[in-house]
Design goal:
Layout: E1 10-11, E2 15-23, E3 27-34, E4 41-47, H1 55-73, E5 83-89, E6 99-105, E7 110-111, H2 112-121, H3 128-146, E8 152-153, E9 162-164, E10 170-172, E11 179-180, H4 215-231, H5 238-243, H6 251-254, H7 260-269, H8 281-288, H9 295-312, H10 314-332
Antiparallel strand pairs: 1-2, 2-3, 3-4, 4-6, 5-6, 7-9, 8-11, 9-10
Length: 333
């Protein structure tokens, strides 16, 4: 059992731990005060190495961490927390192997998983238009990451890792599994690498050292996140679906208020094979907005929208017909 950092602990004579934000099997995130910049609050992610690593493997892990952390420190996007520092050290007063630390902006607000759970407890679904606004910001953040050279993969997109600030801005947080994409070395194992969270993890991410994730792996997680936000529950995980794809319920079966365009986009992102998903987050975002497809498809979409609108306002339609009949009767009596 790893010992966490107590409030009041000071790292590198600069960062004073204020409290624990969250903890998992391989790391923890703390809220901290920056003593060098009074008034600045930051988040510090602490990652400890897997047990039983050889000295060579541990050195490789450290090298990978420093390379990936330097990549994160160069990122600058309004929907990503800024990484301002990174280092490796043994926590003060603890006889343990050195741990890796990322220092980044502290992001206030609720995460989207909590918002989805709150809506479910209240017996309602999150509003589709509001959720799509959040997804637009997420698409911007991931397109920015994927557009880096080399591309940067997040590999753990999920509602719990997306925060909504009090100002209404979306922030994609927790870079615990991030890695630069190296197409020449699909077997690269990194110090920050892991499987992610089951319902949001594409099947190619389960393949151990032979895993070859790419931009479409983040897209799968993005689709699973949208599924959760609109239906109130996470989709069946990829491993289960590989054996029985019928386990994935269509989103509109759970929440009929979801539009057909949005449902089709969600299902496209959740395709089991990467080649069956849209080629990029940007292409999927256009699909989500109903801007993709053939002319025939757009006509069908318009017809479906009219049908949905008529059905949603059926009582007004009936009332209008009754009034029309009454007017005709009065006129010709």
């Amino acid at each position: 059992m790893h010992q966490g950092l107590e409030p009041g602990t000071v790292l590198r004579d600069r960062y004073e731990i204020l409290g624990l934000i969250g903890q998992g099997g391989m790391g923890a995130v703390y809220k901290a005060a920056d003593r060098r910049l009074p008034g600045r609050i930051c988040a510090i992610k602490e990652t400890w190495p897997p047990p039983g690593l050889s000295p060579e493997a541990l050195a490789h892990t450290r090298e990978q961490f420093l390379r990936e952390a330097s990549t994160l420190a160069r990122l600058d996007h309004p929907n990503l927390p800024k990484v301002s520092d990174y280092y490796t050290l043994a926590p003060p007063g603890q006889d343990v192997v050195s741990r890796d630390y990322l220092v980044m902006d502290y992001v206030p607000g609720q995460n989207l998983e909590d918002l989805a759970h709150q809506a479910r407890r209240e017996g309602r679904f999150l509003d589709q238009q509001e959720v799509l606004g959040w997804m637009g910001q997420l698409c911007d953040a991931l397109s920015y990451l994927h557009g880096q050279e080399p591309p940067v993969l997040h590999r753990d997109v999920k509602p719990a890792n997306v925060k909504l600030t009090p100002e209404g801005r979306i922030k994609l947080v927790d870079f615990g599994l991030v890695k630069p994409l190296d197409p020449a070395d699909p077997r690269t194992v990194t110090g920050l690498r892991g499987l992610g969270s089951l319902p949001y993890t594409p099947i190619e991410q389960y393949a151990g050292e032979m895993a070859h994730t790419d931009r479409r792996s983040d897209l799968y997680a993005l689709g699973a996140t949208l599924y959760h936000l609109l239906t109130g529950s996470a989709p069946a995980n990829a491993q289960e679906r590989f054996l029985d794809d019928g386990l994935l319920r269509r989103p509109r079966e759970v929440n009929p208020a979801i539009s057909r365009d949005v449902e089709q986009a969600v299902l496209a992102a959740l395709a089991l094979h990467p080649k069956d998903r849209p080629e990029s987050v940007a292409a999927w975002c256009r699909m989500l907005a109903g801007q993709a497809g053939t002319a025939t498809g757009r006509v069908l979409q318009q017809e479906e929208s009219w049908t949905e609108a008529l059905w949603a306002n059926r009582w007004l339609v009936v009332l209008a017909l009754v009034m029309l009949v009454a007017a005709v009767v009065v006129t010709f009596r």
